[in-house]
């Protein structure tokens, strides 16, 4: 396993622990949805920034459909999290939406970590 793979595994493990700690702290303080909204906002911003930086580095720009779907989904996550944080209105369906987005991010991180630990790749994309 290369040095880069180890750093990615460590980073993904840290992010999973961060999500789980947000879940635990939110449960004990009864602010799971509020803390999940901040976590969703940070995850959405980091994914979009990574994509923008990656697109700047690539000379030939080909945007695939699945890439566009993920980006539009992250824009939806960003807008829902920002609206939930800034508004004083805390509807139940907004809380459920934050839980769903939080769960999707945690699930994707877990699958990515399992993939990294299971398969050996020659080069990260």
Structural write-up:
With 125 residues, the chain is mainly alpha-helical. It is built from four helices and no strands. The protein has helices at 3-29, 32-57, 65-86, 92-118. Helix 1 packs antiparallel against helix 2. The mean pLDDT is 86.
Task: Summarize the structure in short.
This protein has 125 residues and is mainly α. It is built from four helices and no strands.
Question: How would the blueprint of this fold be written?
Answer:
Blueprint lengths: L2 H27 L2 H26 L7 H22 L5 H27 L7
Query: Uncertain spans, ≥5 residues at pLDDT below 50?
Result: none
Number of strands: 0
Q: What would the principal axes of the Cα set say about the shape?
A: globular
Mean pLDDT comes to: 86
**Helix proportion range:** over 70%
Q: Tell me the strand percentage band.
A: under 5%
User: How many domain regions?
Assistant: 1
SSE string: HHHH
Biggest sheet overview: none
Number of helices: 4
What structural class results from the helix and strand content? mainly alpha
Radius of gyration: 16 Å
Distance between the termini: 16 Å
Summary tags:
125 residues; mainly alpha
């Amino acid at each position: 396993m290369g040095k880069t793979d180890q750093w990615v595994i460590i980073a993904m493990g840290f992010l999973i622990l961060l999500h789980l700690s947000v879940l635990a702290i939110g449960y004990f303080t009864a602010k799971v949805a509020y803390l999940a909204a901040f976590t969703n906002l940070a995850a959405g911003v980091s994914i979009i920034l990574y994509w923008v930086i990656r697109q700047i580095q690539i000379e030939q720009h080909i945007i695939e459909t699945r890439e566009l779907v993920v980006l539009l989904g992250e824009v939806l996550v960003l807008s829902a999290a920002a609206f939930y944080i800034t508004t004083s209105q805390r509807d139940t369906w907004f809380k459920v939406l934050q839980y769903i987005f939080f769960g999707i991010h945690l699930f994707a991180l877990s699958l990515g970590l399992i993939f990294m630990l299971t398969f050996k790749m020659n080069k990260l994309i």
